[in-house]
Specification:
Mean pLDDT: 88
Strand content: 15-25%
Distance between the termini: 37 Å
Order of helices and strands: EEEHH
Radius of gyration: 16 Å
Strand order of the largest sheet: 1-2-3
Structural class: alpha+beta
Shape: elongated
Helix content: 40-55%
Number of helices: 2
Number of domains: 1
Length: 66
C-alpha cells in the first residue's frame, strides 16, 4: 500500500516521457517520484476517504446546514 506522508503537497509534475509523477512536499525530506500505478493507488485511496467523510452530508443534507 502506498501512502503519502503527513506533509502538505507543494507541487506535482508528470513526466510526459516516462509517466512518473514527481511530488514535492513542504517538508522536502519527503520529496519523491511515484510510478503511474502507485499514483493511481494514492488517488483511489483519497477518493475512498473523501467519500467516507462526505457520506453524512450526502445521505442527510440538513446535517450540513445545522
Amino acid at each position: 500500500m502506498v501512502r503519502l506522508p503527513d506533509s502538505p503537497v507543494s507541487s506535482m509534475q508528470e513526466c510526459l516521457e516516462c509517466g512518473s509523477i514527481s511530488v514535492k512536499f513542504w517538508n522536502s525530506n519527503y520529496d519523491r517520484s511515484y510510478t503511474r500505478d502507485e499514483w493511481n493507488t494514492v488517488l483511489e485511496s483519497g477518493r475512498e476517504v473523501l467519500r467516507k467523510i462526505l457520506a453524512p452530508v450526502k445521505e442527510d443534507p440538513k446535517f450540513f446546514y445545522d
